[in-house]
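[Q] Does anyone have a clean structure-token version of this?
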Amino acid sequence: MDYVQLESQNQRTRSSQAEVQAQDAMHSLSQRPGPRSAAHAFQARAALDHQLRTALTSILGWTQVLRTRQLDEATAAQALEIVERNAKWQRQLLEDQMAMLKQLPDPTR
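[A] Here you go.
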């Protein structure tokens, strides 16, 4: 397994773990009113932050590598696929978070 494939596999594993943590925290937040909800909100925010930073770090890293123009064509194509996949994943994360937030009770009412 080459570096690009290994990095891609590691990214998917980290992303899946962080996504499950964020979903669990958001679900707990919606189910538990009161003082504990602040802790759950913090956990959800921390998980989302981790997910976004993980994907963004990969995007930035591969962008820097691509700028060197020292990759063969196949590796450059794989790098672009990783960048695109991570950007789409970030977009999906944000859409999922917005959908979950819409399900929470409005604290201003």
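[Q] Thanks! Anything notable?
[A] The longest helix spans residues 36-67.
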